Amino acid sequence: MKKILVTGSVGQIGSELTMELRKRYGNDNIVAGGRKTKPSEELLNSGPFEVVDCTNLEAINDIVKKYNIDTIYHLAALLSAVAENNPQLAWQVNVNALVNVLEVAREHNCAVFTPSSIGAFGPSTPSDNTPQVTIQRPTTMYGVTKVSGELLCDYYFKKFGLDTRGLRYPGIISYVTLPGGGTTDYAVEIYYEAIKNKKYTSFIKEGTKMDMMYMPDAVDAAIDLMEANPDKLINRNAFNVTAMSFAPEDIAAEVKKIIPEFTMDYDVDPLRQGIADSWPDHMDDSAAREEWGWNPKYDLAAMSRDMIEKLTLKLEQ
After folding, report:
1. Which of 142, 169, 175, 298 is catalytic?
2. How far is the C-alpha of 140 from the C-alpha of 91, rounded, in Å?
3. Active site residue 25
4. Quick one: pLDDT at residue 80?
5. In this predicted structure, what is the pLDDT of residue 192?
6. What domains are defined for the chain?
């Protein structure tokens, strides 16, 4: 039976990934690791939780030894807009902490999952049907840290034979956790505001297309990749994955089908708009589909229906 550590388990992806892993592998076999934010009661009470600062190598090492960990899902990171406002801290959290995880994993022979991002691309990357292997010259610190992470994981696989794997996630949409400082957060906020106030002001301008994915698909993608036959993996640490690509007005149109009185206007945030403009409109995820069977379940319409249904129940509580 696997013994798994999830760092960043209180974050947007980590909180839901941890619970799904506990369903699949057993509560006691999944250790949730978090730094400061108080975990939910569900996360805290359903299995072991450890306070861990991933910039402290010994702290990670102690937990891996204590629980005999064989797999690490390393999700602790600063997101795009937050990272751009504090680039030095972003390097410390997104890169130095990853090196610590890789070093501990090398010593204890752990498999490692590390998410990359659409932010690893830049304005010189082909924006339409962005290839799996292409130029990566990001213009944000977040992007720089993600490219560095991809290369570090490649290095540890080739140099030390460490089983490293990863995905280039698009924007992730979830009804469980609040947005955490990402450029694609508008796509989550729009549902909250549509239900609560019937209106939303987008900080991303009309016509700005970005890849997106619903959280259930994001969680399945991570687990499916880690369960895939390693002999079939060519790209390993940076698989493009996506489920849909849309602009703010596209998601607003879907919301209006369910909440007809919903309206949206715009007040563009130059920082996040600049980041969005540097990212691709749509990634080519054929390598993930061919090498380990990636196949998302949700499109924009299905996600919108589920988000509004689940969020309405949540906000009524």
Report:
1. 142
2. 11
3. no
4. 80
5. 93
6. 4-170+214-240 (3.40.50.720), 171-212+244-282+298-316 (3.90.25)
